[in-house]
């Protein structure tokens, strides 16, 4: 019944528009009563995001099950990938929702509130792992925000392409920036970007992150250190 309500709602949203569709319209098309609708969804907005509560619960459980052996930044990056999997389960639905959300200001605001809850879940886990560190709370909040920003940037790029291509590779590429900047453990091995292919074979690529305005000698020193040269 839950899936039937979501299908009916999106059919009407596409035909009539979101604002012109009422809960009564949705239940009439689905062939159920209003009570059944509100048993599953507190509001019309919630039917647009039917899977986020489950995903947030999965993410929270994943982080709760973390042990001391898990490197914290890598762990929150892995937790963010659970959100990607939710979107990738049904690309056509995810693309429809993305287009609808762009058109309706109220849904954009709702989506921001959902994103904030994901970010808080990541930050709370990191705060617990960074307890006792100088600026531990600040570090946790900054890293959580960076993970969400990297994930969402890559996810929206995939959605703008109508769900074409490999979403996992796009998000992994973005999250590697976060892990390289903040992580203490080994980052996942980077995949070569298309422009690094020479003669059909990938060349070695080294990415060095440096502060804007750093003196050139410092940048060169960082490159030499990364390459393992004196």
Report on the architecture of this protein.
With 230 residues, the protein is mostly helical. The protein folds into three domains: 1-46, Arc Repressor Mutant, subunit A (Orthogonal Bundle), CATH 1.10.10; 49-190, Tetracycline Repressor, domain 2; 192-230, no CATH class. Helix content is 68%, strand content 2%. It has eleven helices and two strands, in the order ααααααααααββα. Strands 1-2 form a two-stranded antiparallel ribbon. Strand 1 (197-198) and strand 2 (201-202) form a beta hairpin. The chain is elongated, with a radius of gyration of 21 Å. The N and C termini lie far apart (66 Å).
Mean pLDDT: 84
Helix content: 55-70%
Strand order of the largest sheet: 1-2
- What kind of oligomer do you see? single chain
Instruction: Specify the number of helices.
Output: 11
Q: Tell me the CATH architecture of the largest domain.
A: Orthogonal Bundle
Structural classification: mainly alpha
Q: Note the run of SSEs as H and E.
A: HHHHHHHHHHEEH
Could you give the distance between the termini?
Answer: 66 Å
- The portion of residues forming beta strands comes to under 5%
**CATH H level of the largest domain: which superfamily?**
Tetracycline Repressor, domain 2
Largest sheet data: 2 strands, antiparallel
Count of structural domains: 3
Q: If you consult CATH, what is the topology of the largest domain?
A: Tetracycline Repressor, domain 2
Task: Pick out the low-confidence regions.
Answer: 190-203
CATH class category of the largest domain: Mainly Alpha
Radius of gyration computed on alpha carbons: 21 Å
Find the count of extended strands (DSSP E, 2+ residues). Answer: 2
Quick one: overall form? elongated
């Amino acid at each position: 019944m839950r899936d039937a309500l979501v299908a009916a709602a999106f059919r009407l949203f596409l035909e009539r528009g979101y604002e012109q569709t009422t809960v009564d319209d949705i239940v009439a098309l689905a062939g159920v009563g209003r009570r059944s609708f509100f048993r599953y969804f507190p509001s019309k907005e919630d039917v647009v995001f039917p899977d986020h509560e489950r995903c947030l619960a999965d993410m929270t459980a994943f982080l709760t099950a973390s042990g001391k052996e898990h490197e914290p930044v890598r762990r929150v990056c892995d937790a963010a990938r659970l959100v990607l999997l939710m979107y990738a389960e049904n690309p056509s639905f995810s693309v429809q929702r993305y287009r609808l959300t762009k058109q309706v200001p109220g849904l954009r605001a709702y989506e921001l509130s959902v994103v904030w809850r994901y970010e808080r879940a990541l930050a709370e886990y990191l705060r617990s792992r960074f307890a006792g560190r100088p600026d531990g709370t600040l570090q946790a909040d900054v890293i959580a925000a960076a993970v969400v920003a990297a994930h969402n940037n890559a996810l929206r790029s995939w959605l703008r392409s109508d769900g074409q291509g490999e979403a996992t590779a796009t998000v992994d590429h973005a999250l590697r920036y976060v892990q390289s900047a903040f992580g203490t453990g080994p980052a996942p091995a980077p995949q070569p970007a298309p422009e690094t292919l020479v003669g059909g074979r990938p060349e070695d690529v080294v990415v060095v992150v440096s502060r804007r305005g750093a003196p050139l000698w410092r940048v060169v020193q960082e490159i030499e250190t990364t390459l393992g040269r004196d």
